[in-house]
Amino acid sequence: MPFRIFYRVLLLVLCSTALSVYFASHSIRTVAVTTLTCSLLLQVAYFASVLFLIWRSSCASRAG
Asked: How confident is the model at residue 16 (pLDDT cuts 50, 70, 90)?
């Protein structure tokens, strides 16, 4: 997944999460904590997918 697409999806998910948490709790502190947590989890998932692609590429080059 190109970074540009990842960035757009990241912004969309974070904004929708922030809005839904704010309307549910009416707490800015909860919104900030939830948004930061969601951002961290999404970035970890992106990093893991990049590592998986690198690992898969190295396995394919060894086999071929």
From this structure: very high
